[in-house]
Design brief:
Chain lengths: 530, 530
């Protein structure tokens, strides 16, 4: 992902990162975010511990946090300066020549290595991973990834020193799988923190609602030690399903992770943000949560199904403009919330020009006033569209300190951490061996369409994989952009069963000769292995 | 449409209403709303006449208008009390026994007449219309309709007394057709005003941008007397098309009409609101604009295509909750913005219950606090869902004075007048004679699905219309709800070419014996006549 004013260039290092779920906490757990379990004795209304995430999300908090000139929060006591987040690569790349300190071919502009897990190191579900970086542009690879088994434990009710406690059973109660891609900007720190943290946040959020998830339908009440019988009339009427709790847990986990990243970056004196694309399989369903401009698709024999939408200043124009309409203070008089076909100039004053406001899908004409000459809230279009002239995405994690250059205008109220979640019922779909989910950051989708990626995946299906060079040649013919080939090779050369018998070495030939604008990372998952 | 606290019962009267476009204004026009033409000499930046609609839509205006305890606008000077809006029926029903004062069979609970235009009175494009009312429930039919030719004129540049003027050419420059349904609540006044006004607002808005509409692509600048050459780089890149101007004109026309209704109702001391569903054909495209819970579908031989979405407190939950999050003052401490499966009681305090906030699609659990026991911002679901316990729709026209019973809490900031607009390229669709657009208020869709309506429309297609009783019998067999039959008969018995040869009298037999919950109105249009 490219953030116009955030791009760095330079060198690149590699490392390892903890991609596995955090070890189980012994004994009683701390409150796991908003949806978390409560100790019954402490359930005082308004207790800040009961709903920490949500309590923060009040209008008072919003105004304190974002409105310039409003009452400011009391200054926090200074905290000991933590050490910076160490740069790492995903753990599953260890041994593939990508650990920090390894001499790295990507320093050479003529050779852009494609990193993938070493042979024999399997990712869950025959998943494959590949990443590529343009060494000339970035010192660090800002794309990060994580994958692993998701072990959801169950709370049990116990008594300890005359007090009721919820305790955690150490055994797995429900298991799933988790894959995630994070595309950083303004440095790799936020992406590394997200790769280290988000799965733990999700596990905690899921553990807080797991009793509801395994009930026939989520009960209205969820107490610490039993599922209280609720009035089925109400719950049934609302049509609340177990999957709605997983969607809610993903939404809460993104928020919790965002808060963790904000604290950690502040403590370590670092900055930055990242997009997040997460796929989770649980109870026969596939959940894809996306905040940013990465993308996931499902490739089947006769179908290409998008599993996510991109969140950019362009796709979220009306939401962003509406916030600026409701709170113009957020723009501090420096920007206009209106959209014009281009930035207006003094010559345009008094002219009737095309424009759109927050409530409009269509366009109209208006007479240009002085205030319309300000810099537009969303400027440019397509890959060049920027929120407040600064950021190319409208959702993601981190960026708590990000302000418009030389101003006090914050990006965060416009930038959301909430993901959009798509749910796929894998049982209903009757998945086949050749059905593949492809997740990738924007570097891939900038050069290849969904159909091109699907075409390539299909060319490696069992019936089509006789000639490993077929896809390469075909793509070279169809698409003169050599960068595309690199991406495709990156994804194909490191993949083995079931849809490729290609010799990895033969595929790596020629890699790095293309012209890569961006770094990118890609995961592909054979979903029928659920 | 049923507004829980707004429903009246009682008697019913009929009348006629001006459904034709208003006569052309002679000479220079008044400023036609935000996108309107400007006289060049008056184009001062910030001139209140230049952008009347938009200028009102500032955050200052929003806060003055809606925030309790905020600075109030200066009281308006008292205006002469206008006479109430007279009750009428659509003009094209004249002669069908529906004029005011005619003895009306609907007073008898056992006979519910279906009103339709008299034989020989053609609506544009072989369109048909039918309405039905439950005489026991409402004194007035709150559904209104309008249809007619849309004559867009063109401005010409002239000189008058040493001043430059824009003048309107009396000739039609561009023509289209217009059909509209308005479903009133809290009385018929808003629906009547909308039926009298909206087409004029739309005509003015279109006339203000017509030069852009007929250009190869809308120019960046639109001056009063010429289309200034713009930098094609910018306009082209944004992908702005002529149809975007029509969409914008529809959006602006709804807003303008809403303002007119607000002024007229205030002046006449009346109240109420209405939904609005509008279909417009122009330059080979069909535009469907919807604000409320009416619906339009396109029925083709092998396809049923929805042309609108319903806007209800349920379908717009997140938008409504988000506004309450950003401005909790709008709820005046009386409501909670959170959604629960049912209204919470004192017993629920301290329990963990299912909930959703503005940023959530999924559900989670939270510990119930005192503030959660307030009445929910959106309560109930399906047809019972109510915004602030009051209104069943979240978009529509009017309701400027509507407040929650016995409070100062206004519905209007949550209730939007902006429509969603769907565009259909009729040329690309290769429309056939049997392709029919069906528009109806919620009374029809409450008892019939899209597929049932399509099935019935198809049963009258040229190849299927041998037996006029076929559809009736089949529906009676398939659907034991006799109300459905009434609706279907209502739509079928009054229709002639091309898809029905039914004898109207035979179809009216048995009408009125069903159990109608609501009044409803329905328009069907043979779109291939464009």
């Amino acid at each position: 992902m490219a953030a116009h004013r955030l791009r760095g260039g330079g060198r690149l290092g590699f490392g390892g990162v903890t991609a596995q779920p955090a070890p189980p906490c012994p004994g009683p757990l701390p409150p796991p975010g908003s949806g978390g379990q409560c100790r019954r004795p402490s359930l005082l209304p308004g207790s800040p511990r009961a709903v920490p995430g949500r309590c923060a999300m009040s209008a008072d908090w919003f105004r304190r946090r974002f409105l310039l000139g409003g009452p400011l929060p009391a200054p926090r006591p200074p905290r000991p300066r933590a050490s910076p987040v160490p740069y790492r690569r995903p753990r599953f790349l260890r041994g593939s020549g990508s650990s920090p300190g390894t001499a790295d071919a990507s320093y050479r502009p003529d050779a852009r290595p494609v990193r993938s897990p070493v042979r024999g190191r399997a990712l869950p579900w025959n998943a494959g991973y590949a990443e590529i970086i343009n060494a000339e542009k970035s010192e660090f690879n800002e794309d990060q990834a994580a994958c692993g088994k998701l072990c959801i434990r169950r709370f049990e009710f116990g008594v300890e020193e005359d007090q009721e406690w919820l305790t955690l059973c150490p055994e797995e109660f429900l298991t799933g799988h988790y894959w995630a891609l994070f595309d950083g900007h303004g440095g790799p720190a936020a992406a590394i923190l997200a790769a280290n943290t988000l799965h733990s946040c999700l596990r905690r959020q899921l553990e807080a609602v797991v009793e509801g998830m395994v009930a026939t339908q989520p009960p209205m009440h969820l107490s610490g030690h039993c599922i209280c019988p609720s009035d089925p009339q109400f719950v049934e009427e609302k049509g609340i399903r177990a999957e709605d709790l997983v969607v809610g847990a993903l939404e809460s986990a993104f928020q919790e992770c965002d808060e963790v990243i904000g604290r950690e970056l502040e403590a370590s004196g670092q900055v930055g943000g990242c997009t997040a694309l997460v796929a989770v399989t649980l109870q026969g369903k596939l959940y894809v949560a996306n905040a940013g401009d990465s993308r996931a698709i499902l490739v089947r024999r006769d179908e290409v199904r998008p599993l996510s939408s991109e969140f950019t200043p362009e796709s979220e124009r009306q939401r962003i403009q509406q916030l600026a309409f409701l709170y113009p203070e957020l723009l501090a008089g420096e920007f206009t919330r209106l959209e014009f076909p281009r930035r207006l100039k003094g010559d345009d004053l008094g002219q009737k020009v095309l424009f759109r406001d927050h409530h409009m899908s269509g366009w109209s004409y208006k007479c240009v006033e002085q205030s319309d000459l300000k810099y537009p809230l969303i400027h440019g279009q397509g890959r060049q569209a920027r929120l407040l002239g600064t950021l190319a995405v409208s959702r993601g994690l981190g960026d708590h300190q990000l302000k418009v250059l030389d101003t006090n205008i914050q990006l965060k109220p416009f930038l959301l951490s909430v993901p959009q979640v798509t749910v796929l019922d894998m049982d209903q779909l009757e998945l086949q061996e050749e059905d593949v989910v492809v997740m990738a950051t924007d570097g891939l989708w900038d050069v290849l369409s969904n159909e091109q990626v699907a075409w390539l995946v299909r060319s490696f299906l069992p019936g089509n994989r006789e000639d490993p060079h077929r896809a390469k040649d075909a793509v070279a013919t169809e698409d003169s952009n050599f960068a595309s080939q690199n991406h495709l090779q990156a994804r194909c050369q490191c993949e083995r069963p079931p849809w490729s018998t290609a010799d990895g070495d033969s595929w790596t030939k020629g890699i790095g000769q293309g012209c890569q604008e961006e770094q990118t990372a890609c995961v592909w998952i054979q979903v029928s292995n659920a």
